[in-house]
């Protein structure tokens, strides 16, 4: 559907032309004085200079040419603004079209395009910690948003499964159990199918090994093991398979709890087959050069204000690093999916890494000129006190712990307030907790840091996820009491609150478009907060089920029904859903 702003801009331009002025002056904006009008045009002020005439005169001439049936108010005011309010008929027709069109008539700006969203970024053998919350939540939301806007979307978790952490685990395991066949270079039989470690053992092995990095002899071993693994040493590949087998199901489970789902579970290791040819090619074309024993790709540009160091392609010991696998992953993605856009969601401390990789990819022509590359570098989630989040003993908080803390807190409220029957407590709690967690995060600009505040995020009032859910549940219960409502047509606004609500609903399409273009789920949050406010205002000021005139009542119901559908669609784009009761 055409956006309202575009519709009335076209009408305004026509009016300028009909009044004898250049149509390009007829630009309309959303009013910044909602107390005076809904939309406004300041074009007469600019036109005044061209036509050497008082702006108010131009504004009046243009206002006369506008089709009065579209507006309930057309006001030419000093010094030359044209203030507009939409007519009831216009709004009614527009909303009825939204109600009956698929996906509310939102323009599918991504139709025919493919996007890869690289998010999550879990590292195998390491438990997910709170640092993994934001890339999972923001990435999932951006992916859903792109999908809704018509993109063919491929979400890839891009596991950290190929770097030094693998070598560290192998080296540590060898110290503990040197007699395992994996370490015998002459072993030619089948390796045991059963893993030599359990998940909890693995989660202990890694930090222990990591702490030993300071020991040069151990570090050397780990580096060699990493290199040999990457070179395909059989026994090490077998250990790697065990690490994956033990680690992946747990990662899937926790992402599942967060309602985060990846189309692809590829990792750094999957880029490995693409590395040799890519490296050879970059060397052959002189794009990679030798520097202190390593191969690097210089990516500095003249316009750089800060130094952008070369991207390291191959380390002096011959092993691939983070940038190598990221570049090779692009080769794989272009070959397999030829995406129009690759969007990466990681901590903003990786900004430089992506700048280097993107530049190298462009320089080498690994991605086509039209493929958009974007890195959304998110800020840090801090504790309530604004300091980095730590456990009581100073460690890094596990993601699961954070989720269960939130869940426990919400559950106690659900139980205390007897919100649902006992059998429903867990399911309802899970939905509210997820909304609290995700909305608490997504309502912030991705790049900004924010403070995690359990009580505030879980509150049923204020700018929170639970407040949005509560609004939806409230409407659902009214609709249930009313009965069949799905086919009721939208009517002209019954009062000023209805009109505000209708105007808010019309902003869905423009909001989603801006949110997508600026990779900002926070705009969707701000939108539904405003929309929920309009719903509640309308509900408080208007007797809905008590309305005696059946026709009028049906209009109220149709309106809140549409608002509820819009809200539910938006929270789905944010990655959570509403319970039946709350
Ligand atoms: N595993 C990485 C980390 O923990 C994040 C991966 C992000 N994605 C990427 N393509 N580099 O920092």
Report what the structure shows.
The chain has helices at residues 4-18, 43-51, 55-65, 88-100, 133-148, 164-176, 199-211, 216-230, 234-257, 268-271, 275-284, 322-337, 351-363, 399-416, 425-442, 454-458, 465-482, 496-506, 508-517, 521-541, 550-574; strands spanning 28-30, 39-41, 71-77, 81-86, 114-118, 152-156, 289-291, 294-297, 311-314, 341-347, 372-378, 381-382, 450-451. The chain is of the alpha/beta class. It folds into 4 domains: 4-86, Arginyl tRNA synthetase N-terminal domain (Gyrase A, domain 2, 2-Layer Sandwich), CATH 3.30.1360; 114-157 and 266-382, HUPs (Rossmann fold); 164-250, no CATH class; 403-574, Isoleucyl-tRNA Synthetase, Domain 1. The strands form 4 sheets. The protein has a 4-stranded antiparallel beta sheet with strand order 1-2-4-3. Strands 6-5-10-11 form a 4-stranded parallel beta sheet, sandwiched between helices. Helix 5 links the parallel strand 5 (114-118) and strand 6. Helix 18 runs antiparallel to helix 20. The longest helix has 25 residues, at 550-574. The mean pLDDT is 95. The structure holds arginine. Arginine binds at residues 118, 121, 123, 158, 160, 326, 344, 346.
Brief sketch in words of this structure:
The chain has helices spanning 4-18, 43-51, 55-65, 88-100, 133-148, 164-176, 199-211, 216-230, 234-257, 268-271, 275-284, 322-337, 351-363, 399-416, 425-442, 454-458, 465-482, 496-506, 508-517, 521-541, 550-574; strands at residues 28-30, 39-41, 71-77, 81-86, 114-118, 152-156, 289-291, 294-297, 311-314, 341-347, 372-378, 381-382, 450-451.
């Amino acid at each position: 559907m055409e956006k309202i702003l575009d519709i009335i801009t076209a009408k305004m331009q026509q009016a300028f032309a009909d009044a004898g002025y250049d149509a390009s002056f007829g630009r309309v904006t959303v009013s910044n004085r909602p107390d005076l009008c809904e939309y406004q045009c300041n074009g007469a002020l600019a036109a005044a200079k061209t036509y050497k005439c008082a702006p108010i005169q131009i504004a009046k001439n243009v206002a006369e040419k506008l089709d009065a049936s579209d507006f309930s108010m057309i006001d030419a005011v000093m010094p030359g603004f044209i203030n507009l309010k939409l007519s009831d008929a216009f709004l009614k027709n527009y909303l009825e079209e939204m109600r009956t069109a698929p996906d509310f008539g939102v323009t599918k700006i991504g139709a025919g395009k493919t996007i890869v969203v690289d998010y999550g970024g879990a590292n195998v053998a390491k438990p997910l910690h709170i640092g993994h919350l934001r890339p999972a939540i923001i990435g999932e939301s951006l992916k859903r948003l792109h999908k809704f806007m018509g993109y063919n979307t491929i979400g890839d978790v891009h596991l950290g499964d190929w770097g030094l952490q693998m070598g560290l685990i192998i080296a540590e395991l060898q110290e503990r159990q040197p007699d395992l066949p994996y370490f015998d270079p002459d072993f030619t039989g089948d390796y045991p199918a059963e893993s030599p470690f359990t998940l909890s053992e693995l989660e202990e092995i890694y930090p222990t090994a990591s702490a030993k990095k300071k020991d040069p002899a151990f570090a050397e071993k780990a580096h060699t093991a990493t290199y040999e693994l990457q070179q395909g040493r059989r026994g090490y590949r077998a250990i790697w398979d065990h690490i994956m087998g033990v680690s992946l199901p747990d990662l899937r489970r926790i992402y599942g709890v967060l309602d985060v789902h990846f189309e692809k579970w590829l990792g750094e290791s999957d880029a490995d087959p693409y590395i040799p040819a890519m490296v050879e090619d970059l060397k052959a074309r002189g794009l990679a050069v030798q520097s202190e024993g390593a191969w690097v790709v210089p990516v500095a540009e003249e316009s750089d204000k800060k130094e952008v160091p070369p991207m390291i392609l191959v380390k002096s010991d011959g092993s691939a690093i983070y940038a190598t696998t990221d570049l090779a992953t692009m080769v794989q993605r272009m070959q397999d999916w030829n995406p129009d856009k690759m969007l990466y969601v990681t901590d903003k401390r990786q900004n430089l890494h992506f700048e280097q990789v993107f530049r190298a990819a462009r320089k080498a022509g690994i991605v086509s000129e039209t493929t958009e590359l974007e890195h959304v570098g998110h800020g840090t989630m801090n504790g309530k006190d604004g300091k980095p989040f730590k456990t009581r003993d100073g460690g890094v908080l596990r993601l699961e712990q954070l989720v269960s803390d939130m869940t426990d807190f919400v559950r106690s409220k659900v139980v205390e307030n007897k919100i649902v029957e006992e059998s429903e407590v867990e399911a309802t709690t899970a939905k509210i907790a997820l909304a609290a967690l995700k909305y608490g995060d997504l309502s912030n600009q991705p790049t900004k840091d924010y403070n995690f505040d359990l009580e505030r995020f879980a509150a049923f009032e204020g700018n929170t996820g639970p407040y949005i859910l509560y609004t939806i549940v409230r409407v659902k219960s009214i609709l249930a009491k009313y009965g069949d409502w799905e086919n009721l047509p939208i009517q002209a606004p019954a009062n000023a609150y209805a009109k505000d609500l209708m105007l808010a609903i019309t902003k869905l399409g423009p909001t989603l478009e801006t949110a997508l273009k600026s990779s900002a789920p926070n705009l969707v949050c701000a939108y539904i907060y405003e929309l929920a406010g309009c719903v509640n205002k309308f509900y408080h000021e208007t007797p809905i089920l008590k309305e005696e005139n059946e026709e009028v009542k049906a209009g109220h119901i149709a309106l809140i029904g549409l608002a509820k559908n819009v809200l539910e669609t938006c929270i789905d784009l944010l990655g959570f859903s509403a319970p039946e009761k709350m």
